User: What shape does this take?
Amino acid sequence: MLRRLFAILLLLAPFAMAQSKHPFTFEDMMSLKRVGDPVLSPDGKWIVFSTVTVDLEKNTKTPHLWLIGSGGGEAKQATDGVGEDAPKWAPDGKSLLFISARDGESQVWIAEFDAAAGTISAEPRKVTAISTGADGAIWSPDGKNIVFTSQVFADCADDLCNQQRNEERAKSKVKAQIFTHLFFRHWSSFTYGKRTHLFVVPVEGGTARDLTPGDHDVPPFSFGGQELYAISPDGKEVAFTSNITEHPSWSTNNDIFVIPISGGTPKKISTSPGSDSTPLYSPDGRWVAWRMQMIDGYESDRFRLVIYDRQTGSISNLTENFDQWVESFDWAPDSKKIYFVSGWQGGAPLYSVKWDVMNVKPAAAKTTSGVSNVTVSKIADGHFDSPQVMPSGDTVIVTGMKVTMPSEIFAIHENGRGAELTTQLTQMNTPVLSQIAMSPLEPFWFTGAVNTKVQGFLVKPPNFDAGKKYPVKFLIHGGPEGAWGDAWSYRWNPELFAASGYVVVMINPRGSTGYGQKFTHEIIGDWGGKPYEDLMLGLDYAEKTYPFIDKNRECALGASYGGYMVNWLLGHTDRFKCLVSHDGMFNTIAAYGTTEELWFPEYEFQGTPWTNRAMYDKWSPSNFATKFKTPTLVVHGQLDYRLDVSEGFQLFTYLQRQNVPSKMLYFPDEGHWVLKPQNGQLWYKTVDDWVDQHVNSKTK
Assistant: This one.
């Protein structure tokens, strides 16, 4: 009898566990730790990484450093100051640097590391004291110097000048500015005439020296990710990315330069008319690898991986026959292989590329390739980033995520036959996630515009019942050269959208990445054409294929290009009960005159408003205002300089003037993304309430 009872309890245990889980909430999401890139110690035994903790009540995000053994074990918090980020190991592994504002301004600090105890000293030493602050520090491989970035006035020769200029601007009662060229504002802030420069400072500290003086940004603006500069293995040379074209606001022609760390005149080593960035020296010092695009002005051209032979000057394209974007990468210890991640059909697998070295004479350097027999191999499927190769060369440390899990750190082990074994090293969010009911991402394929195969995804609500009918949140991604996939997001989280009883449907239409460059490029000059058809056909397919979808209760939501497409839907279909347009382009002509990166509209719409007015008019949602009927929530941030807040104001005005049910959520302190925790809380509540109001969210 007892044995039978025990067997019944075992059978019921998984059901009881499932029942005890609760739907995902915004507060759950804010309680999750946000794991940064792993950084391997020189001996390969330790991994240091930053983890951001959110305090919703205080409306703050604070990073601290954590440590874990590369073989696994329990991760331990290693710092507990006001905030420590961007760690890098000393070449001997006995100390590490990080960025902290513990005495006011962000500066570079160095702390001793006790390998036996696995601890970082609680009494770090400050290395920099530059008035404009320090960021992005990297350690010279010879252990002598630290290179970092700082935003300075281009015409200032020393730190005293920068300090005085900043103080004068802060004290002045006149806040007016005079502009003489574009990029007077960028992304979410005004430049105030400042440029980002590279500085070098001895490890012992002292006066930092500007390595890249002049009226150019070194490196150019980026959203993070792999560094745009590196130091040679002997510590004598710095490679960096910069755009020295006369008009960087409408040119993406970043180039790679090298300069002695002691100073001198930079030498350009890249040759592509498109963007070259993220240089990284090989461990043996022979090569510099970087990501290359071929088309100037097109930020979504395919990223190729090239290597530059420092002996001969030849540049070899390693991925010419690989029709995918190369993203973050790292060298193997023997300098004969590179590991990289690449987005593909909703994932970002880990790949490797290897080659044979040819005997190339310096005289033929500019015309002859230095490699042959290039082989690209997939190592592991998943959604990975930030590869770091172990000294042994057979294991790669990465971050990995899924739609049901934010970034954690993984080890991918590669044996001699190319098989793989992926091990999750950190469990930073398991205690929280184990209490939450989530559904996995379900992919599907359908026939889109002009008989092209297109991929979509679906997320079911928690406690899903196939016999019931569910309303739909139809999400449209931004970019437009972006993609949905099995990935985590804090700003547009499919699991959080599904948690209140919705089926979430996401389509990767024409223009999406991860399906070959032709598919990505087919949105150019066709913003409301084939991409719109792909989206509608994808939703048609989902409605016909999944009987639990209630096609009479659907709401479409999108941001950036997704916001544009929502605005386009307003004038082209009445199938949705409501719409949510976040930071979307509404008036293409006006948007051109208020954006900062002009290369974007000029390439997407194949010219300027005065050279190709017909294209701008054809795809402007504002020109279809007479057909606006669907209730619409408009969201925009004052600090959005990519798509100016006036785009949101115009849309809201058009809706109100025509008595279309509408509401506007305006953030005076946010840019293109809503980043502050309490603002995010308001955003999700306002969006969810709007959708609930119009689709009647109760399951039928």
About this structure: Confidence is low (pLDDT under 50) at residues 5-18, 363-368. Residues 2-20 form the longest helix (19 residues). Residues 439-454+466-495+527-695 form a domain with the Rossmann fold fold (CATH 3.40.50.1820). The longest strand covers residues 549-559.
